[in-house]
Amino acid sequence: MGSVAFLSASEPPKPWVETPLIYSAPLSNAAGCNIYLKLENVQPSGSFKSRGIGNMMLRSTLSSPSGDEESPSKHHFFCSSAGNAGLACATTAHTLACPATIVVPTSAREPILRRLRGLGATVVVHGNSWFEADTHLREVVMPASAIADGNDGETVKQVYVPPFDHEDIWAGAATLMDEVAEQMKSVHRAYVDAVVCNVGGGGLLNGIMEGVWGPSRNPGSGKTGMGKEVGGGKEPRVLAIETVGADSFYQSVKAGELVTMKAITSIAASLGAVQVSKKTWEWRQQVGGDNLVSATVTDAEAAVASCRFADEHRMLVEVSCGATLATAYNGDLKKYLGKGLSEEEWKNVNVVMVVCGGSHVSVDVLAQYREVYGPQVAWA
């Protein structure tokens, strides 16, 4: 791996970037309200994961006291993922000039493996599922690597990087709302009435909820979340979208308790957490169903939304992201966020949709979606 020159040895580069927030005329026309797109698809790794995983990894490198002789001289990052989390880990490790090992299941696609290796990560293929890959990472790969890392005389800190369930990951994702607040104020001169995102394990949703409702990340400021500032005196509502068959949060809401799904049957692999994080469920309990709304779309709707978005915006996003966009295309957005509003009132509602990006997409994949799912969707 090549070395990276930092401006200061004590200030490594931030592994994520501020992303654009743009008004979308096509989606606004389809939804009947004002749609703004937060373009997380342009993050260094290709998805919003750069924020949360990048923040966690960056904080781990800064956690040792300066000048402490016991501090590790090197960090080695470990992640189990065949998609966006693995790419975010490998991309961040490359940025921080640290080694990364990614364990992927046998279902991992060759383009993802090439990208991981191209970023300098060590890739281990093991198991038929994420669970088996993760178990192998923790029980076999990390212990063996600890022995190997110690052979060169350096003190190495091993860092396990989870896909979504860590407070530093949520804090990193929350920076998205800080940017939205500033961009809506300074660029668009508008308030936000609602934010729409997808939810898999809950890392992105937890960050958005922290950004809207949580304590300020500026100690001593006396502020809570950015919600009332960005919402013009009230917190924006949050709509969390899943695909049917990867809807552990929606199933939990229906059951009134945290549910573990028996299997994931959706094509939206990035949403395929059999149980949403406990923190996500706590947010629902804390703010209530009117403020954190849970809903689903079908695989066909999500896939066709990705195709239509590519046609209208010239951007490729995976089907998990298409699930978010589908609510604007299929007319359901007003049902979830504009109940009781007249058409004229709904026209003035401002909604931010998080375009989370994703690695599981290509021109060929979208062509297949169009052929298979297009006939099933009226608005295709």
Automatic annotation (TrEMBL):
Enzyme class: lyase
EC number: 4.3.1.17
Signal peptide from the UniProt entry: none
Gene Ontology terms: cellular component: cytoplasm
Pfam families: PALP
Principal subcellular localisation of the protein: cytoplasm
rRNA processing is among the record's keywords: no
Pathway linked to the protein: Carbohydrate biosynthesis; gluconeogenesis
UniProt GO molecular function: L-serine ammonia-lyase activity; pyridoxal phosphate binding; threonine deaminase activity
Span of domain Tryptophan synthase beta chain-like PALP: 18-357
GO biological process: gluconeogenesis; isoleucine biosynthetic process; L-serine catabolic process; L-threonine catabolic process
PANTHER family assigned to the protein according to its UniProt record, in alphabetical order: CATABOLIC L-SERINE_THREONINE DEHYDRATASE (PTHR48078:SF2), THREONINE DEHYDRATASE, MITOCHONDRIAL-RELATED (PTHR48078)
This protein's name: L-serine ammonia-lyase
Organism of origin: Sordaria brevicollis
